[in-house]
Write a structure and sequence with these properties.
Layout (H helix, E strand, L loop, with lengths): L2 H29 L16 H6 L2 H12 L2 E6 L2 E6 L2 H10 L4 E3 L3 H7 L9 H15 L1 H4 L3 H15 L3 E3 H18 L7 H13 L12 H26 L5 H7 L7 H32 L1 H17 L9 H5 L2 H14 L7 E3 L3 E3 L2 E3 L4 E4 L1 H5 L38 H18 E5 L6 E3 L3 E3 L4 E6 L2
Parallel strand pairs: 2-8
Antiparallel strand pairs: 1-2, 3-5, 4-12, 5-8, 6-7, 9-12, 10-11
The protein binds protoporphyrin IX containing FE.
Length: about 475
Amino acid sequence: MEFTTMFCLFASILSLFIFHSLLKFLTSGQQKPPLPPGSLGWPYIGETFQLYSQNPNVFFASKVKKFGSIFKTRILGCPCVMISSPEAVKHVLVSRAHLFKPTFPASKERMLGKQAIFFHQGEYHTKLRKLVLRAFMPEAIKTIVSDIESIAITSLKSWDGQLINTFLEMKTYTFNVALLSIFGKDEVLYREELKRCYYILEKGYNSMPINLPGTLFHRSMKARKELAQILAKILSIRRQMKHDHNGLFGSLMGDKAGLTDEQIADNIIGVIFAARDTTASVITWIIKYLAENPSVLQAVTEEQEAIMKEKCGEEKVLTWADTKKMLLTSRVIQETLRVASILSFTFREAVEDVEFEGYLIPKGWKVLPLFRNIHHSPDNFSEPEKFDPSRFEVAPKPNTFLPFGNGTHSCPGNEMAKMEILVLLHHLTTKYRWSVMGPQNGIQYDPFALPQNGLPIRLSLKS
Ligand code: HEM
């Protein structure tokens, strides 16, 4: 081939290449929106130190002030987009939920069980959700109100005259209620063993995920294995009984559910985890707020005394209908859920590149709906730092009150949680008084927001 022909060929290939690259650059520039504002901080570390060295809520609030309701950051090596407008959160959790899957650190999945409801999307999740909702819908939990009442009465008696760590004691209450709602009224076989293993498991939940003998994580994983074995034993005994079982266990083990033993165990452990510390933390906050707001405590006590007076003889036990009359007390629960916002945020992950409010959320980035910021924004709640249950006499604006999340993964245990709190408050306020011991202005994260030191109180019977 002649030199001129070779040169022409080379020149045309080169210009084609340049044209193609230019076109790609121009069109990509046109198609891809920018990343949200904010800083990704240092490589890998990102802004992890800033987040953990201060109250996380202060970190979020300062970012929202600087960048607005959607901003980017990097935490523990993961690029994240944080969102705090009610509409944007609705998009992520409800309208475009299929684009944002739930995401947890691998160590947490291993500990709770990979087959647990929280970690899934699609068909398997829908099936589990139906089974879990069936066990916790009002029709199902109505039947255990009086049994929960017995647990509340016994627990309160055991604290009478004592200086107690409120959170720790409420964890015992909510654990016992969780076992009742899971296994039904039948004698809970292996109760003490379940308790022992679960308590070891939870100790390692926030530990470094190093599975070597001697580590907390290793001990937790061993306890988890034992828990699964105990649950398998209960399953085999219950299958031999050949009658219908109620509670979550009954719902999950039904033939129609078609779940394996492992799937059942993972979901039982997962539900105990979801139900226990959350509810215990909310009760702890309520006890603190009631102590700090004597007029609210007085009003709650009067409402509960009126319900108590209506009951006589056989009818003395509390019923579901009674809990529905506790309107003021329910508003105290709502206001506590708002002010304390025990779950400050949740996690999702973009399953593909998503264009969102004019920004790009790249595939694999985490997305964090900031519940606490929504609950504490003056746009949504006037004087947001004030504890004022009466604000719930009027329904909050849509998508501004999200203590139980929203959409496909919203909390299926919310009715159960409210009912067990109401039952405890009925007996607490009508029969006991309490005073908070020591200074109580701090918040700790365990990982749920909690009053400092678990709120030590002294509780005694009213004379
Ligand atoms: C006051 C106490 C409680 C609070 C504040 C609470 C809050 C939440 C929130 C915010 C979510 C959604 C998380 C997300 O979207 O990522 C959730 C999910 C969940 N909660 Fe609760 N919860 C409470 C009590 C309970 C109770 C008592 C149970 C069980 C009886 C329960 C079972 C669950 C389960 C199984 C899920 C996962 C649902 C799914 O992935 O489809 N929770 N909870």
